[in-house]
Amino acid sequence: MIVMRAMDKTMTCAEFQDALPELFESQSDFSGHEHLKTCENCAALVRDLEYIASQARLLLPIHDPSPAVWDHIQQAIRQDKPEPPATAARK
Amino acid sequence: MSLTAQKATNSRAFGASSHGTITKERFVLMAGPTQPRPANQHLRRNPPIAGEQEAIDKAREGDGRAFETLYAMHKRRVYSLCLRMLGNVAEAEDLTQEAFLQLYRKIGTFRGDSAFSTWLHRLAVNVVLMHLRRKGLPQVSLEETLEPSQDDGPRKDIGARDLTLSGSIDRVTLERAIENLPPGYRLVFVLHDVEGYEHNEIAEMLDCSIGNSKSQLHKARMKLRDLLRTGQRKEQIA
C-alpha cells in the first residue's frame, strides 16, 4: 500500500521519505520513481542511503582481540574444568 | 574466576541516550545458537576454511590444540562483531572470551546444518544480546524510536547538492560513524547491513517486530548519513 502510494508522482518529499523504508525493503529498483525525477534532494538522499548500505556490506573484520583474551580463555577452561564437550553434548 | 566483568568497562556506548537504545522490548537469549536460515550473504561472508572441519571434529573430542586452531580461525570475526555491536573494546574482549568459552562447551551440539562460522557468529550475537540484557540498559523502547524526532526523523531539506556522499567514504570513516550511532540503531545496522542478517532474524533476536527492525535500520542509515555529512562539512571548513 505504501509502495503503491509512493508511485504517485504528486507526492511530497515528506510522503516520499516516509515511504522510503518500504521502498528499500521492496527490493525493487525505484530509481525511476516519478518523485526522484523532479526532486534532486530526495534523489541525493536515496543515492546516499544506498551508498552507505553498500559500503557497510564491504566492511571486513579487521580488528584482532588482544593476546590476553586467549590467555583468559585457557585459564577459564582450566579453572572451570568443564566436562569434555562431546560428553556435554550427549546430555 | 568470573568470565565476564573482569575488567572495568567504560559505559560510553550505553549512556543516557535519548533514543535508539534497546530494551523495553527485551532481548531474548535463545538456549543456544539456533541454526540460521540460509542466506546468500552469510554464505558469501562465511566461505569454507581449509582445515576447519578437521579442527571441529578434533575439538569435539576435547583436543585443546584443535580448539586453539578454531580460535585462531575465527577470533577476528567474532571480536569485530562484538566490537561493532558494543562500541567498546573492553566489553568486546570480554564477550569474545565468553563466546569462545560457550563454543568450547557447546561445540558438541553443532549439527552441521549451517556453516560452522554462521553458527558461531549467531552464538556470539546471542552472547552480546544476553550481556546487554543483563546490563540493564536505560529502558528506552525500540518502538519509541519509531516516532520521528527532530534529531533523527526525516529531514525535508536533506541532500544539499554540494554534499553527496557517494564515492567519498573510506572504511575508517564509516567504522567511526557506526561507532557513534545510538546503541539501538547500531545493533540493527550492524546485524543487517554489516552481518547480513534478515529482518525476520533480527526481529527474533531482539524480540521486536519486523517492521520495527526495518524502521530502525532506516533511521540508522539516516543517522549515519547525518554523521558522515557533518564530518565532511568539518573537513571542508578545516
- Largest interface, C-beta within 8 A: A-B, 51 and 61 residues
The gyration radius over C-alpha positions of chain A equals 25 Å
- Treating each run of at least 4 consecutive H or I residues as one helix, how many helices of chain B? 9
Helix content of chain B: 55-70%
Give the percentage of residues in beta strands of chain A. under 5%
Tally of helical segments of chain A: 6
Q: Which residue ranges of chain B are poorly predicted, with pLDDT under 50 across at least 5 consecutive positions?
A: 1-40, 143-162
How much helical structure, as a percent, in the residues of chain A? 55-70%
Task: Round the mean pLDDT of chain A to the nearest integer and report it.
Answer: 81
Sheet of most strands of chain A: none
Based on secondary structure, the structural category of chain B is mainly alpha
Question: Shape of chain B, please?
Answer: elongated
Mean pLDDT of chain B: 76
First-to-last CA distance of chain B = 50 Å
Radius of gyration of chain B: 19 Å
- Reading the helices and strands of chain B in chain order gives HHHHHHHHH
Structural class based on helices, strands and sheet pairing of chain A? mainly alpha
Unreliable segments of 5+ consecutive residues of chain A: none
Count of DSSP E strands of chain A?
A: 0
